[in-house]
């Protein structure tokens, strides 16, 4: 896997984890907490990869600096050897002068080799610097998304719970519609009305019985009065 595709792969992992969590979600809070943990793990993986890329860049910069220092060092050595050769040659010591000129040539070859290294490092360092900037930007975006998720977690949990409560209420209303309790109340009320009517009928029956008894008593009193008057009439006729 190339370093340039690293954040893309991590982004795919994040999306895959999100889709899996949403599809299998039962408890919204547990799902969101797990999502935050997975997002954090993916960010940690990205941080390690970015840190490794930065480390490689710093190594290249260090190698380039050492090569640049070597260019300057071998240039100084070549200059010193050439100067010494000129001094010896001026003094008539041609053999030793030639030796120092040869040393100057060796130093110049080393200098040229290190200059080649510096030129090689330059585009690599530029490329790595641009890549590091890109990776840092992508990593900061992931961190911002994580913070946004953390901030919205409570809101999303609350909304999920409200939705569940609404679903429960709707299910309860459907159950009420299927078996309407008012019909049972009406049937019970009708039963009570019949009981009340029965009680009224019994009271009327009882009242009728008392009226009959009083009527019998009045009839007996009337008969007694008639008998008394008849007896009085018979006594008057006899005198």
What does this 3D model show about the protein?
This protein is mainly alpha-helical and 239 residues long. The chain has two domains: 3-179, Helix Hairpins (Orthogonal Bundle); 181-239. The protein has four helices and no strands. It has helices spanning 6-23, 28-90, 94-178, 181-238. Helix 1 runs antiparallel to helix 2 and helix 2 runs antiparallel to helix 3 (94-178). The radius of gyration is 58 Å and the shape is rod-shaped. The model has no long low-confidence stretch (mean pLDDT 80).
Structure summarized in a few sentences:
This protein is mainly alpha-helical and 239 residues long. It has helices at 6-23, 28-90, 94-178, 181-238.
Write the layout of secondary structure elements.
Elements (H helix, E strand, L loop, with lengths): L5 H18 L4 H63 L3 H85 L2 H58 L1
Helix pairs in contact: 1-2, 2-3
């Amino acid at each position: 896997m190339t370093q340039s595709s690293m954040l893309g792969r991590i982004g795919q992992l994040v999306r895959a984890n999100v889709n899996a969590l949403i599809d299998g979600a039962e408890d919204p809070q547990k799902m969101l907490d797990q999502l935050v943990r997975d997002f954090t793990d993916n960010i940690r993986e990205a941080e390690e990869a970015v840190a490794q890329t930065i480390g490689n860049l710093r190594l290249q910069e260090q190698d380039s600096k050492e090569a640049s220092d070597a260019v300057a060092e071998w240039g100084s050595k070549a200059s010193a050897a050439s100067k010494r050769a000129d001094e010896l040659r001026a003094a008539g010591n041609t053999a030793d002068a030639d030796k120092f000129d040869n040393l100057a040539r060796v130093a110049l070859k080393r200098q040229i080799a290190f200059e080649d290294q510096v030129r090689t490092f330059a585009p690599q360092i530029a490329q790595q610097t641009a890549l590091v900037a890109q990776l840092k930007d992508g990593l900061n975006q992931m961190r911002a998304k994580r913070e946004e998720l953390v901030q919205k977690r409570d809101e999303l949990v609350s909304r999920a719970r409200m939705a569940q409560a609404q679903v429960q209420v709707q299910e309860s209303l459907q159950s009420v519609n299927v078996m309407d309790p008012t019909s049972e109340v009406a049937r019970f009320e009708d039963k009570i009305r019949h009981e009340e009517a029965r009680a009224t009928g019994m009271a009327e029956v009882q009242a009728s019985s008392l009226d009959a008894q009083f009527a019998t008593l009045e009839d007996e009193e009337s008969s007694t009065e008639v008998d008394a008057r008849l007896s009085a009439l018979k006594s008057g006729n006899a005198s």
